[in-house]
Amino acid sequence: MKQKLLVTASTFPRWEGDTEPRFVLDLSKSLLEYYDVTVLAPACPGAKEEEILEGVKVIRYHYFPIHKWETLCYPGAIVPRIKEKKIRGLLVPFLFLGLWWKLLRILPKYDLVHAHWIIPQGIVQSFFKKPYIVTGHGGDIMELNRGIFKILKKRVLEKASCVSVVSNRAKQKLYDLYKIDNVVVQTMGCDTNKFSPDKRVENYFGQDGKKVILFVGRFVEIKGITYLLKAMEDIDAKLVIVGKGPDESLIRKQVENLGEKVIFLGSQDHTKLPTIYASSDIFVIPSVTIQGGVTEGSPTVITEALASGLPVIGTNTGGIPEMIQDGVNGFVVPERNSEIISEKIKIILGNSMIYKEFSENARAYGLKKSYKNVAKAFQIIIEKVK
User: Phi, psi (5° rounding) for residue 277?
Assistant: First the structure.
């Protein structure tokens, strides 16, 4: 009989076809080969309290008496949601309490726990005796490292059977701050059957034969999209932008002088993304380090782009340079430098031999990050739980 694994997370699809990041769902699906998996995530208006989502059992816990106010976690992530509307910060203690109360009732049914994010899932889990691993994804490592949060995070890391993070930079950060050395680096993956060059549709965006540069991400400062827009000023290609976020009005204002070069698609569900990736020519992720030294983790959009056969241009921040083989399947560039982004785009688009080589290498690298491989790696990690 398979062990019962409880996966806890605060970012998870709210319903079938949702545009929210789905890497926890994809990993949980793949782990069904090894465990009886249930995902526990925060409730959200319009989402079911319990359901089977793509074969995975899902439970959503309420954390505020007025359910329509449970808006802390979606869409996006907790910290950006609070920055967008500070009053949401008042929901934070309720989120902790709601998770604690739900775990108190259901945890005895499970053998072990995989907590995604140190805050809040890891912190709450550390107050129970059930063995667990915790995975840090980025912001939960880089932010909130003072006062009571530093004490609580140290407790999480020390009580965990194993700690996993998505980049070597994150691992180093945990060691510098907490002297924790039982840390395994393991990125998320992607569904390499869905994300494939085979999904390409020529002139999918109605671009009249022009090459397509793709950006997928939230419209927030850390994504650095303004530097990509600046780079587009002297590039003869289309820029397709997938996403939404609080900085949308500023971004739309910046593109006014680019005219028809830019196509906004808004948020797209995950059934459409494979065709969007494969029908593009280059993927650019111009992320930046923001106040407090906060950086990206290892964005899954990079893996999706590589698996789709797209050369990737990414900035030298967070875990991004660990995901791109510079000069092999793309380029790593300095952050906040539109000129170099433009230069590298022109190199890839202007040389068919380089493009073909980068594209083939991208697909080969992406295949290594299939969720079958990633799930096997996590199964080995989870077996350390005791």
Answer: -60, -55
Contact criterion met (CB below 8 Å) for 277 and 195: yes
**Beta carbons of 7 and 39 less than 8 angstroms apart:** yes
| Residue 373, both tokens | 């491989």
User: Six-digit token pair at 255?
Assistant: 């593109």
Among 144, 178, 145, 184, CA closest to 163: 184
Q: Classify residue 349 by its DSSP letter.
A: H
Q: Which two tokens stand for residue 215?
A: 């950006």
Please answer whether residues 76 and 246 qualify as being in contact, where contact means their C-beta atoms are separated by less than 8 angstroms.
Answer: no
Beta bridge partners of 315: 333
Report cis status (omega within 30 of 0) of the bond before 120. Answer: yes
Whether the CA torsion 346, 169, 117, 133 is positive or negative: it is: positive
Number of H helices, E strands in the chain: 14, 14
Answer yes or no: are the C-beta atoms of 284 and 214 closer than 8 Å.
Answer: yes
371, 375, 381, 384: CA torsion to nearest 10: 170
**Encoded amino acid at 175, one letter:** Y
**pTM, entire model:** 0.93
3-class secondary structure, 39:
strand
What mean pLDDT comes out for the span 313-335? 97
Q: What confidence score (pLDDT) does residue 348 get?
A: 98
DSSP 104-146: HHHGGG-SEEEEESIIIIIHHHTTS-S-EEEEE-SHHHHS--S
